[in-house]
Amino acid sequence: MNAPQNDRDAVLGRIREALRIPAPLHHPAERSAGGEPTTAHFREWLPPVGPTPDERLALFTQLSETLRSELILCDSAATAASHVARLASENSWKTLGLHRGELTSAMEPHFPADLERLWVDEGYDKDALEASDAGLTECELLVAQTGSVCVTGPSSGGRVLSVLPPHHLVVARRSQLVTDLTEAYASLAAKYRGQYPSMISFITGPSRTGDIERILVLGAHGPKRLTILLLP
Amino acid sequence: MSALSSPPKDQFLQDADRTTGDSPRRDAVRKALHNYQSARNRTGATFTDWKAARAAAATIKHEAVNHLDQYLEEFERQFTARGGKVFWASNSQQARDYILNLAKARNVRAIVKSKAMTGEEIHLNEALVAAGFGVVESDLGEFIQQLKGEAPYHFVFPCMHLRRDEISDLFNRELGTAKTDSPEELTMIARRVLRRTYVEADMGISGGNFIVAETGMISITENEGNARLTVGVPKIHVALVGIEKVVPRLADLALLLPMLATAGTGQHLTGYNSMYGGPRQPGENDGPEEFHVVLLDNHRTRLLADPEQRDALHCIRCGACLNVCPIFKNIGGHTYGTTYQGPIGSVITPHFRGLQDWKHLSGASSLCGACTETCPVGIDIHHHLLHNRRNAAAQKPAPGEGLLWKAFAVLMRRPALYKLATKFAPLGSMLHPLIQGTAVDPVIAWTATRDFPEAARKSFRTQFKAHQAAKQQGGVR
Fold first, then answer.
1. A residues 12..31 contacting B (CB < 8 A)
2. What is the CATH architecture of A56-231?
C-alpha cells in the first residue's frame, strides 16, 4: 500500500469555506465584563489558594491527603534519603530507578549499599526499568491548587521513570510550590523560552481508575504509590 | 447516505425497548452516576465562580473554532519545527490508511493503544487487526470492552454498565484468571496483563484532548497512566485527533484542564495531564523517535459550516451531558448506535453521518436542558436538538404533516368553523373508542401507547356565555 495523499489543502479549504459565515458566541450575558478573558482572570474563578507560602503548603497538604499522595516534610537531603531507605527496607526493594539531579545526587550516597541503582540519564534498558521497585525523580514544580507534581523530561529523568515503576518518589524544594496551573505555565514559559521539553506532565496523585462500578482503585497502570519528599 | 428505510432508527427503537425494561442494568448505571454526581457537586462548589469560568472556556473555544484554519496551521508549523509529522485526513479511510501504511513501513509488530474516541470513530482497531497487527487497548475500561468485543458504553466511562461479577466472569473466560468480586483485584489482573505490552509494543496510538497551537503540543488527559506509558515507551507515537480540539495558547489549559476534570469525573485535576511537543528532543534520554499527528476532519467541517450549531465543536468530550441526561440513564449508551452517545452525540451525529438517518436521536430528548446547564463550555445542546428536528423536517417534511397544519390554520382562522368543530368534538370523543388503536383510527400514532384526551362536553364559549348571562341576571361576580 502506498502512503495516502496528505489532504491538507482540502481540509483547510473546507474550513475556510465553512468559516465565511461568522458564528455568534452563545451566552453573551455570561461573558466577563472585561471583554476577552485573559489568563490573569482564571485565578478569580478557579478554586481559591491563599496568597502566602504557608497557605499554599496547607492546601497542597490537604489535597495530597485527599489524593492519597504521601507528603513528607524533610529538613535535609539526608533526611529525605533516610525516608527512601526506610521505604526500601519496608517494601524489600531491590532496585531503584533514578536520575542525576542536584537533590537526587545529594541523597544517593545515603541509600543502603544493597539497593541497586538504575541510572537512566544515558538511556536505560526498558525491561530493567519495568522490573525496578521504585523510581526517584526531581520535578519542575508543585501546584498548590490541584495537589499536582509537574514533571518534564529534563527535570525528571525522562518520560518514563516517573510512571513505569510501581512507586514514584519525588523530591522537591518548598520554593518549587506554585499557586496554580497559570503560574506553572508562566514559570515553564520563562524557563524554556519556547524550547519546551517533549513532555510536560502534571501528575495528580497515584495512578487511579474508577472504571469498575466507578469505585476508586489506585495503581491501574502507573505508580500505586506517590511519595513527595519536600525539602526547605 | 439517506435512504428510504431507516435502519439506525429501527435499531434505536428496538434497543430502547429492551434496555428500558432491564431494571437491574438501569440501577447499576444510576448508582455509578450517583457517585459521579456527588463528586462533581463537591468539586464544582470549590470554584470561586463556575459560571464565569464556563463563559471564559466557551470564549476560548469559540475563538479557536472560529479561526480553526489559522490555529491548525500554527500548530503544524510549531509541531513540525520540533520534528513531528502532521497528516491531514479528510475522512476515516485516509486516516486508517496513513496509520496502516506507517505500521507496515516501520515493520511494527505490536501496537498498544490508549483511549481515543477518534479510533472508535474510524474503526481503527478493526482495520489494524484485519491487516494482521496485534493491538491492545490499555485503558482499563477499553481493555474490558475490547475483551468483550463490544463498543464503549459511554465515551468517558466505557464499561460503566458492567457489574464486577460480569467483569470477573469475562476475565475468567478470556484470561483464565480466578474469579473475584474485588474491583481492586480485577484492576490488578489487567495491570499484570498490560504491563508487558508497553515494553513490547513498538507503536503507541493515542487520541488527544487538546491541540495547542502556540507551542505545537498535543495534550492528553487520563487517570491511569496508561497513556503516559503508551506514548513514552514505544519508538513510534501516533496521535489521532479531531481538528476541532485546538486551543490557541498553552496557558488556556490552566482553565480548561480543571474544568474538564470537574465536569468529566468530579476531580480537581485528572491523574495525568500531559502535553507532548514532538518526539524525543536532542539531549533527552527517552521518548519516541517519531511522533505523527493525524488531524481528522471526517465531516467535522460540515458541522463547522452550520454557524447556528458551530458551538457543538467546542465540545471537550467530558461526558457530563450524558451523566445528567434522563434519556441516557434509561436507554443506556449502546442504544444510541453512535460513537458519541448522549445529548452531544445526538447533536453531532446527524452532521457526521446524515441528518435523515440520525434525526431520530434529536427526538429522543425531554428537552429538559440539563445537558446545556451542565456543559462546561456552554454549548446550547438542547436547542441544537430542536434545530436538528427543524432542519430534518424542512429537508424532508413528514407526509401529510403540512396538510394537517394547513387544515388547523384554516380552522383556527374561521370562528364559525371552529364553533362547529367544538360542537362535534364530544361526539367524536364518544365514538372514538370504537376504532381506537385500529387501522382506521386517525390518531393511531398517539393512541397506540396513550389515551387521547376527551373533548369537553361544553365548550369554553358555551360556558363563558352562560357565565356572562348569570352575572347580568344576578348582578354578582
1. 12, 14-19, 21-27, 30-31
2. 3-Layer(aba) Sandwich (3.40)
